[in-house]
Amino acid sequence: MADLLTDLLIYIGIGIITFTIGMILGYQLLIMYYTKRFVTLAKECSDTDSVIPLVDELEKET
């Protein structure tokens, strides 16, 4: 019985660790994606001296 409980705790621990790693990696990937997207959009706005690319991007999102 003690071995079963130990195994269960190990599996729960592994599950928590993998969930945490997945959350951290997902957060980092989303931050990288949206930072790149924002920089590209800011460059487009700067090149055209207008906020029209920003409005177009907002249109796509909604």
> Low-confidence stretches at least 5 residues in length (pLDDT < 50)?
none
> How far apart, in Å, are the first and last alpha carbons?
55 Å
Radius of gyration: 22 Å
Number of domains: 1
Number of strands: 0
Backbone shape: rod-shaped
If you average the pLDDT, what whole number results? Answer: 92
**Can you summarize the main beta sheet?**
none
- Which range best describes the helical content: under 10%, 10-25%, 25-40%, 40-55%, 55-70% or over 70%? over 70%
Order of helices and strands: HH
Our count of helices gives 2
Helix vs. strand class: mainly alpha
- Content of β-strand: under 5%
Task: Tell me about this structure.
With 62 residues, the protein is mainly alpha-helical. It is built from two helices and no strands. The mean pLDDT is 92. Helix 1 (2-48) runs antiparallel to helix 2. The protein has one domain. The radius of gyration is 22 Å and the shape is rod-shaped.
Question: How would you summarize the topology of this molecule?
Answer:
Blueprint: H1 2-48, H2 52-61
Helix pairs in contact: 1-2
Keywords:
62 residues, mainly alpha, 2 helices
Write a concise synopsis of the structure shown:
The protein is an all-alpha fold and 62 residues long.
